[in-house]
Amino acid sequence: MNPRFSLVIPAFNEERFLPRLLDSVDEARQAYRRGPDAVEVVVADNCSTDRTATLAREWGCRVVRVEKRVIGAARNAGARAAQGDVLCFVDADARMHPRTFEAIERTLDTGRFVAGATGVRLDRWSPGIALTYLMFVPFVLLTGMDTGVVFCRREDFESVGGYDETRLYAEDVAFLLALRRLGRKRGQRLARVTSAKALASTRKFDEFGDWHYLTIMPRMALRLLRDPAAGPEFAQRYWYRPKR
Fold first, then answer.
1. Which residues pair with 65 in a beta bridge?
2. CA–CA distances in Å: residue 24 to residues 12, 57, 93, 198
3. Nearest to residue 79, comparing CAs of 189, 153, 26?
4. 90-132 per-position pLDDT tens digit
5. How far apart, in whole angstroms, are the C-alpha atoms of residue 121 and residue 47?
6. For 134-169, how does the pLDDT look when each residue is reduced to its tens digit (9 = 90+)?
7. Closest CA to 15 of 64, 53, 60
8. Residue 203: Cβ within 10 Å count
9. Fewer beta carbons within 10 angstroms: which end of the chain, N or C?
């Protein structure tokens, strides 16, 4: 029988963070009432040059090699290889709440939600990080879109065409927007499963500074207004060429 859940983890050179995520995934699988075999884990290895794929196999994950170096392509490839009825997506540097699968299943079983996300806690705080976090709260409350473990039914993933592989960034926002539009046609909305928040890494703040959303990002936004062609270069520097 197919598993109930498929957890897709896009990963590029994640040998440092992947083990702690997979430990938390194992805990959540054990806590799920249908048992650990009802949850499969797919690691979409996006051209890693370290031991990411080896570690994933040692943990018993299915590993899919993805040559297109775009995170949307990695997520889509993982989803294509997955066999579960419900698809979940989580970043490799996060950690899952033990009750994640239970909470998601209860949410979807109501029939009131097309998809959703768990939201996150952060693994460290500072004034700059706290202010950045607060800046995103109105967006989350107004749109119903969140981050953390993102989930949807397989058929709905296919209905919206998965993640947009032409986007180097914000593909996760576009994906949830597409699902929200689909849900509106059926009287459904996006869910925020905040009882099972994931723990998010702050490594972008470690690399670029705790205040970079208030310094680097405004300057980049102004540059994009003047020169939209600068977007791919910034995306490569910020998301695709990290120090790992």
1. 45
2. 19, 16, 11, 10
3. 153
4. 999 999 999 999 999 999 999 999 999 999 999 999 999 999 9
5. 29
6. 999 999 999 999 999 999 999 999 999 999 999 999
7. 53
8. 15
9. N
